[in-house]
Write a structure and sequence with these properties.
Strand content: 15-25%
Protein name: DNA cytosine methyltransferase
CATH class of the domain at 16-163 and 220-238: Alpha Beta
Helix content: 25-40%
Order of helices and strands: EHEEHEHEEEEEHHH
Shape: globular
CATH topology of the domain at 16-163 and 220-238: Rossmann fold
Organism: Streptomyces zhihengii
Keywords: Methyltransferase, Transferase
Radius of gyration: 17 Å
Distance between the termini: 37 Å
GO molecular function: methyltransferase activity
CATH architecture of the domain at 16-163 and 220-238: 3-Layer(aba) Sandwich
CATH superfamily of the domain at 16-163 and 220-238: Vaccinia Virus protein VP39
Number of helices: 6
Length: about 240
């Protein structure tokens, strides 16, 4: 595992954000566009991650940062712990836990460590998965995307206004009970059954730097974290919650 020995303030005046359980950088890209420099951590190699990357267990890495005091190099933390409890969608981000058996809910230990940092944080989860405070809910239709990709976010140490949830323009394309439905959104998960191709997922989510299906199916659209990141950046700059 890479140890956090190379973390240092070397990114000029941009605040540094830690992107835990980073996958290929869907969240990280949005924060970058919002004005942050980003350091990603994931348990498997992510050669497509577009920023500084450390391979290793995310919680062990965060623990080492806290213990060493290097966490003070960061201004905020984003975490997308695998939704293992009752869900096996995110196999790649925590292969060491073993899949097909009893899965551990990583949200509570992630939250406990994030609270130790004293930094503002964001925990992201899909709808209906591990229990988090739903301080913010986002949908692709809010950003005119080709996916719905509903996601909930728990915010620690800061707040953001909940945007209105516009009415969906139609269905998600695909088969339901043997019948095919067309629609303005694609299903960016799985394969077959009318689900999105890799190019369709890239276009629908605004992710062009990876063409790995597993990475795309796990990613959140950068528009989500850019929206969050702009409010977080303003909060850090002014000390007033957005």
């Amino acid at each position: 595992m890479t140890q956090p020995t190379t973390i240092r303030r070397e990114h000029g005046r941009r605040p540094l954000l830690l992107d835990l359980f980073s996958c290929a950088g869907g969240a990280g890209m949005g924060y970058r566009r919002a004005g942050f420099d980003v350091v990603g951590v994931d348990i498997v190699p992510r050669p497509n991650y577009p920023f500084t990357f450390h391979q290793g267990d995310a919680l062990a890495f965060l623990t080492a940062l806290i213990t060493s005091g290097k966490i003070r190099c960061f201004a905020a933390v984003h975490a997308s712990p695998p939704c293992q409890a009752g869900c096996a969608l995110t196999v790649g981000t925590n292969a060491s836990q073993g899949w097909g058996g009893t899965h551990i809910d990583l949200v509570p230990p992630t939250r406990a460590l994030l609270e130790q940092t004293g930094l503002p944080y964001v925990i992201e989860q899909p709808n209906g998965r591990a229990e988090i405070r739903k301080d913010l809910s986002l949908c692709g239709e809010m950003f005119s995307l080709g996916v719905l990709r509903h996601r909930n976010f728990e915010l620690g140490g800061w707040t953001i206004e909940q945007p209105a949830h516009p009415k969906h323009r139609g269905r998600v394309r695909g088969y339901r009970h043997g019948r095919f439905y067309d629609g303005p959104y694609v299903a960016a998960y799985g394969s077959g059954g009318g689900k999105a191709t890799v190019p369709e997922m890239q276009t629908a989510m605004g992710i062009g730097w990876t063409d790995v299906r597993e990475e795309l199916t796990e990613a959140i659209p950068p528009a989500f974290s850019e929206h969050i990141g702009r409010a977080l950046h303003a909060t850090l700059r002014t000390g007033v919650a957005a």
